[in-house]
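Report of the visiting student (M.T.), summer placement. My assignment was to run the structure pipeline on a short list of targets and document each run. The first record concerns Putative GNAT superfamily acetyltransferase.
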Amino acid sequence: MTAHEQLSGTPAGNAATASSASSASSAPGAERAVRDADRAAQAAGVAVRRLTRLEELDAVVGLLSEIWGRAGNPPVTLELLRAFTKAGNYVSGAFEDGRLVGACVGFFHAPDDDALHSHIAGVSGLAAGRSIGFALKLHQRAWALRRGVSDIAWTFDPLVSRNAYFNLVKLAARPVEYLPNFYGAMADSINGHDDTDRLLMRWRLDDAEVHRACAGTHVNLDAAGELAAGAVVALDRTSGERPRPGRLDGRTSLVAVPRDIERMRVTDPGLAHEWRITVREALMTLADDGGRVVGFDRAGWYVVRRTP
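After the run finished, the structure tokens were exported:
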């Protein structure tokens, strides 16, 4: 989910988390967001709740360390999570039969920016493919809206196709900035040794499109349809899965990403780095010329439109 990224309808603890904020500060769509989060957790077969106890936070550290392959250098520490929760920030877990299978950690932006930054989220490989990540994010959204927070921000690796689809289509979040090598070197089982470029996402929690996405109605942009309507290919892929730069002058542009960058980092790290550089150049050049990423085709294409 994040590069460094479920209200369930069962336990009473989850209901308490949903309603603990003053209703006076809640956004208009907060109660609807709670219902969406309940449905998502039930569909995923998990119970999601905010975590504060030391043993629960320690389980989060262990799970995220396992997911990222960083047992000796965990992505977050127990001390940091303890401080986060004491200061009122967000740490949640998804549970299946009492076992932690997913976790999400966020902290608040500066007071003049009405947002929560979702720093890291992950789901155990043993529970993959069941939309537990979707349930976690919808829990986080409901929790934030109940506290009067309008936006959630996070970063993710733009080369990971499934995460791009999840963020732009399933959640209807939108990129606002391209961040080259944002974290520096992160030698782990997910990032490898490549540059850690990230897209900074902004999730407008009470927007109509976000409401529809969280209720299960997604806007799927189709690359073939965009081409038929006049889009140009800014970055293509060859039959050998190499990047092939194209035109950068279209009103609507398509930018390809590898079909499986994680496998490529293992089998051909040089080619993976070539993709890093060419995607960076395409997206940043288009952004500098007024382009805005408006969606993602699941086949591996960013759709970028120029705006006045």
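Confidence is low (pLDDT under 50) at residues 6-24. The CA atoms of residues 237 and 243 lie 5 Å apart. I thank the supervising group for their guidance throughout the placement.
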